[in-house]
Amino acid sequence: MQVSHAAYYDWLKRPAQVITTDEFFLYLRMKQLFLASRGSLGSRERVKKLRKEGFQIGRYRVRTLMKRLKLKAIQRQAYKVTTQRKHSDKVADNLINQDFNPENPNQVWAGDVTYLRTHEGWMYLAIVMDLYSRKIIGWAMSKRMTVDLVERAMQMAITLRQPDERLIFHSDRGSQYTSKRFGKLLKKHGIQASMSGVGACWDNAVVERFFGSLKNEWLLKVYHLTRQTMKEDVEQYIRYYNHERLHSANDDLSPVEFEMSQIKVSGWT
Fold this sequence. Notes:
The chain has 10 helices and 5 strands, in the order H-H-H-H-E-E-E-H-E-H-H-E-H-H-H. The chain is elongated. It is of the alpha/beta class.
């Protein structure tokens, strides 16, 4: 085992470290949270999670324990823009101007498309997010980046939320969103289109941040052989994101927790 005799006998004389039951369960929960997030949960978010569960702990101690338990969080990488518009398509005005905190649900939705690599080839994911709670309310995946892809994501969101005609949908200027076909879908349901400026990635920053979290927190260490396993894994992340992942914009609640808390206060359904 490449251990010297002196080191071995020194280890034998060393007293065993004794920890309390509470400390044991703290170590166990920290490891569980780390595994559940696929190694993406840093000290800041881990403190919030542990405090919600009743642990009296600060960020400095969490950092110390993370080093002791060898829990190193994955660092986020840069996001790449994937969609481009056809110059013949009509572009909508930017109606939200980076105001990502609407006062009510189903007031402003946002969406985009990103690419995901598998051994079988590329997969494309389209999502729709309600900016009120940051909840993913619609999504669709396909091996082609088409208008049908973004339509299916939008239709899922409409079916789930049944919005009224005051809704704004914000996106970039990709050809899928500027197409006449998608415009007709929005008009049919009384949804007003809003679009980012040219090359202004921050105009849709919340959705881009979701894609960054998906890729760097969840998919970074996993190589998917098939498109089907990628689809299943993305759906698993969306469930984790909606139900477990905390958001500072939601007072450190998950999207589902935030919406449930607001239902109790305001009674909206």
